[in-house]
Amino acid sequence: MYYLCNMEWLNSLFFEHTPLQAVVILSIIIAVGLGLLNRKELFFMKRFFAALLTLTCMLSLSACREEQAAAKPVIYLYPEEETAVTVKLDYAGALTCTYPAYGNGWAVTACPDGTLTDDAGQTYSYLYWEGTDTIAYDFSQGFCVAGTDTAAFLEDALAQLGLTRREANEFIVYWLPQMQENPYNLIAFQSDRYTQAAKLTIDPAPDTLLRVFMAWKPLDKFMEIPAQSLTAPERTGFTAVEWGGCRVR
User: Fold this and answer.
1) How would you label 92-114 residue by residue, b for 16+ Cβ within 10 Å and e otherwise?
2) Which residue, 22, 112, 183, 243, has most beta carbons within 10 Å?
3) Which helix (H) or strand (E) holds 211?
């Protein structure tokens, strides 16, 4: 049991191996040494090994739930007439950036052309936020798209999802540089998995709410996946539109 008391050796063990490998090595040493221990020492070593194994499992599970970024969700507001609007976000993650500053929510005056004005008179094209989360996005359906075909694919898909040409253009110029050089991109537009994790409360409530959120990951080779059906409601009355995305680890 000399090794268990040698801190230099223990440090080297965990530095040169993964936690799971280190635990396996320790378990072998402990198993060999148990025959040399009295009952009290045996009880202590069993407790020590159980605690060490539990800690390793917790670390392993934590590593599997790596944080990812919900990148550039932006919110457009198009009332039928100039309207004071408040927007609140209930996000199952941590906000990392907002513009204008979120505070306890956004309060703006919205015009029919989408221009937003805050209490200080500053104008904005949209409300912007980013955050980090560990949401398990749904890839049961979607699309596997060659990197070189990404721009054309997004133009068509975003039109089907109800974005205007201006909104789609802003979406594409943000995401395309990250996607077009990949051999393939696995793309799935999210519905409940996203909207339940990032709940929006808009007052007054819009007549039409479009939320387009793209989860995607780069691939080295083509992957078969059931095709996703893309639809959108008709934009009528006071319309609120959000688009965003996440590169999944």
Assistant:
1) ebeeeeeeeebeeebebbbbeeb
2) 243
3) strand 208-219
